Amino acid sequence: MPVSSEQDLSIEASPRPDPGKLIEWDRLVAETPGSDVTQLSGWATLRATTGYSPLYILATQRGRVLGGAQLLTRRIPVLGRIAYLPNGPIIDPSSPHPGDVLAKLCAALEAVGRHRVRMLFVQPPDGGQDVTIELLRHGFQYSEVGIAPSATLRIDLEKTEEELFRNANATLRRWTKRWAAHGVSVRQGDESDIPKLAELVHITAAHQGFKPFSSSYLCTMYQELAAAGHMVLFAGEVDGRTVAIDGLTGCGGVLHARLGGFDRSAEATRLNVTSAVQWRAIQWAKENGYRWFDLGGIKQATLHELLSGRPPNLDMMSGGDRFKVKFGGAPHRFPPAVELIASPILRRALERLRGSRAGRRTLERVKALARGGRIPRSPAP
To answer: What is the domain range of residue 186?
Structure first.
């Protein structure tokens, strides 16, 4: 007998769900297109090392998890307890009534935002425009905090290897034929490479001006994600010496360029080793059945330039965006982020903060904490 859309559909909000449900939740996240590792329970374990606590909202019916959200909460001085939901909620695409699951999850998120935390920020999952719309119906507003990138570049891995090669820019195509002759090679890494990754990330952080992840944080990330196939490392070498390492995360059919670092010596830069690492990661993703390769977030100015209909002006892009563009990915937008700040007084205070330099620094701190726990370094006086 068919089950009605409301029958037995329940919502549970808990920091520690039943272990069986958590296993089912992780399986749902891993298998749902458009999901991300930031919704896996292993990610909550990782973020606990930077002071965050998880809150799971799970929609179940007759013991089956049909959808849910893994929120991460933390107390921040002055602002109080905040929560953010990256790339969620997730809904089982085979659910017989996804609209009802979404409505109940969004109602639960509203309750969290009004009664458990001072501020709740939500970046819906890829393809989750309906999530944004439903949350707006529940009193959320569009958010400018930017807890996650609003756009990225993605490579369609259903293309043939020849098509992927043709889509890369001419300089990269030439380098693919030169690396071997110059002693450049790329190998798949493992946990023993984490200390070197931490060292290289530290070098990159010093150059770009952010506080780097610690070696212990990176080790926890690898341990929590790699065992189930959600993280892979690639190391670039020159004559056997490691000069670049990228850490990539995979979930929902997408391999995502998550982090990386490289030795900024003249040799590593001259031989374009970071491009060799990224190119090999793209090839590996295709070989291992991923649908998309995500090159990572891009700035709005870059997005507009790529969508302008004219040949892109690379001089208008940041160095990081210029690096990503040469691999031939297509611009990809994520659904608009939303936020719920229930207190009118706090909302007005934040609106005033956005109008001042000190206020913008405070909001940048919130964004940095949400994105990765790394705080941008203040410029030297």
So the answer is: 151-333
